[in-house]
Write a structure and sequence with these properties.
binds coenzyme A; 36% helix; Aminopeptidase; 7-stranded mixed sheet; alpha+beta; 207 residues; globular; single chain
Length: 207
């Protein structure tokens, strides 16, 4: 595939604050989500920090020498992650975000994810147990880092762990990300819909 490892490295705990910022700066269908929700902590509290807390060894960053400019955070087994979330992350989350009552606003729908990690359980979980999030700052996109994170780090690590497939769910408004995922070998899963795209990639076992 020709993807390079240059500028890619394993996650370190000291990266967390910067990665939380990147999560917000790319959190509105790939664009800046600063100020979109009543607190900028919400997106990283749902889509970044639980991942590096549960499985820091499944997180990698892009760093050209001045600190992280992008990341990929993954979990190899979504079912285990959901159990971990319920036991560990929901109590943490509940101290910071009150559980919403119906009718739910768009922000309250997001907050509910902190209480209901089973939303991560797509029907194809047995075949595609892993899932991930990937975000690069504008200005560092389109230079091969996304492909490098997937081809050189995520897929080999999953293959070595014997994980048969990886999936992602995404905002349907993010057409650039959709083109990227298709370029790096992801195809729509049977449960995928126009409103809630779910893409997967099979991982051949290592011979
Ligand atoms: C989506 C993202 C992770 C892709 O990473 P990237 O480093 O920009 O992509 P790469 O340079 O590695 O591109 C890999 C392939 O995807 C294709 N691709 C990437 N962005 C594309 C776009 N906007 N339109 C069409 N194709 C695209 C490239 O053409 C390339 O194909 P090639 O290797 O065959 O030439 C990155 O742009 C990003 O973080 N965007 C903002 C946050 C975001 O949307 N995250 C995903 C949330 S679901």
């Amino acid at each position: 595939m020709g993807a390079s490892n240059t500028g890619l490295r394993a996650y370190r705990v000291g990266d967390l604050a910067r990665l939380r910022e990147i999560c917000v700066l790319t959190g509105a269908a790939g664009s800046d989500a600063t100020g979109r929700w009543s607190t900028d902590e919400l997106l990283p509290d749902l889509f970044l920090e639980p991942y590096v807390t549960a499985s820091p060894e499944w997180a990698w960053v892009v760093d050209e020498g001045d600190g992280p400019i992008g990341y990929l955070v993954a979990v190899p087994r979504t079912d285990r992650f959901v159990r971990w979330w319920r036991a560990k992350w929901t109590p943490w989350f509940a101290e910071r975000y009150p559980e919403p009552d119906e009718p739910y606003s768009p922000e309250e729908e997001l907050v509910r994810r902190g209480y209901h990690p089973e939303v991560l359980e797509i029907p194809e979980l047995e075949e595609y147990p892993a899932h991930f999030h990937i975000d690069l700052l504008p200005g560092h996109q389109g230079r091969g880092y996304g492909r490098g994170l997937i081809e050189n780090l995520l897929i080999p690590a999953l293959a070595a762990a014997g994980i048969p497939g990886v999936h992602l769910t995404m905002d349907p408004a993010n057409s650039a990300a959709r083109a990227f995922y298709e370029a790096v070998g992801f195809t729509p899963l049977p449960s995928s819909t126009a409103d809630a795209p779910a893409l997967g990639r099979w991982i051949p076992p290592r011979s």
